[in-house]
Sequence to fold (151 residues):
Amino acid sequence: MAEEALPRPLPTPPQAGEGRGGGPAGRTVLNVGCGYPLRQKLHRHFHGPDWREIRLDLDPAVGPDIVCSITDMSPVTTASVDAVWSSHNLEHLQRHEMPLALAEFIRVLKPQGLLLLTLPDLCAKWRSSSSKIASKTRPTPRRADRSPRST
Fold:
């Protein structure tokens, strides 16, 4: 008589702060500004079974593991994650907030950790918008009157 296969237990959902992902994870990725939980939003580098995702967002409505700002990630322990993934978050910060966010990313990374950023070319956007503004505000050059002066 063939042995009957036993049903596999269902994986338990992650508890708050444990992160998401299937199977035992050897490495953790902190997905900052994660938004709603869609696996395809996570960079493909972190899709393998050896990665465990911890979701961080300012908006509690998206169901993150950690609710906080990327400029103050004090709920995250120093040198506690193997990677930080940030996709299109930095361009929403004020100029003075960018160094704060980058310092927080570095603080939470383990030594030799990976910081992976995706953002638009901010310099190109700035040049484009500033040239449009300048063309609207620059006075139209006037031709010099070349007629001889009468005395």
